[in-house]
Amino acid sequence: MIRNRTWQEKALGAVNGVLLVLIALLMLFPFYYMTIVSFTSYSEYVKTELLLIPTSFVLDAYAYIFQSDSFVRSLGVTIFVTVVGTFVNLLLTSMMAYSLSRNILGKRVFLFLVLFTFVFGAGIIPTYMIVSATGLINSYWALILPVAINSYNLIVMRQFFLNIPHELTESALIDGANDLQIYARIILPLSKPALAAFGLFSAVAHWNTYFSALLYLNDPAKWTVQVMLRQIVILSQAGNILSEGVQAARGLQVPPAETIGMAAILVSTIPILVLYPFLQKHFAKGVMLGSVKG
């Protein structure tokens, strides 16, 4: 029997709903303002202190940044690092998690080492020395290999593998399958929710790579889009994305630095926003799997 809510509960629910709507609007407003400014013309932007509803939409800022070879190249670098880095993260983390979920020699030692790195980090200087000693400076692998396995993701994924019924793997062993076949044909297909959740985490982390790229990549041609945004936004070098000669040859009028910065931020944000809906179905389930033993 469903109990009717009292007026106090209804009032509390209404207040909570209003507060949640207000909080959502506050969080969405910066994204809305960024979008509006990126489509605003120069004349309308300079005469308005706080632009909320523009009278016209122009694509000058987007045309300008996509005419920039350096920005387009940095976008391609970020896509490459994100795709390859996420694949490496999921492959190595899932393989090690599956191995540690089995009864292997030295299992406790490996688990201790994983937990040790989870609690104690090497720090910037030792990590840089290792990257330099392995010859990864100014290489894209410097952004991928040092973070190939995340300790937290490994522990949670191992717990998820432990929740998979042992009867499945035992039946496969009786049928003559080896561990690699069990991992590829049984474990991975059953792990789609966990792989989707951790894949999204890894993709967002790689897409937002900034400090590592700034630290390890000396060649500006190899910079990621986040480092390029630093050049545009933080250093206020929006007008220097294209040289004056290229601007004259292409007939480009330099838009305000603010609109270029907003457009560049929006372009670098949209791919991750587009990716999330495709993984949402698995994401909500994946973040809970492995949290309890069942």
Automatic annotation (TrEMBL):
Q: Which GO terms describe its cellular component?
A: plasma membrane
Any Pfam family matching the protein: BPD_transp_1
The Swiss-Prot or TrEMBL record describes its family as follows: Belongs to the binding-protein-dependent transport system permease family.
Q: Does the keyword ATP-binding apply?
A: no
InterPro entries hit by this protein: MetI-like (IPR000515), MetI-like_sf (IPR035906)
Domain ABC transmembrane type-1: from-to ranges: 75-279
Oxidoreductase keyword on record: no
Membrane topology field: Multi-pass membrane protein
User: Cellular location of this protein?
Assistant: Cell membrane
Protein name per UniProt: ABC transporter permease
Please provide the record's keywords in A-Z order. Answer: Cell membrane, Membrane, Transmembrane, Transmembrane helix, Transport
Q: What processes in GO biological process is this protein linked to?
A: transmembrane transport
Q: What is the lineage of its organism?
A: Bacteria, Bacillati, Bacillota, Bacilli, Bacillales
Q: Mind telling me which residue stretches traverse the membrane in this protein?
A: 12-33, 75-98, 110-131, 137-156, 195-217, 260-279
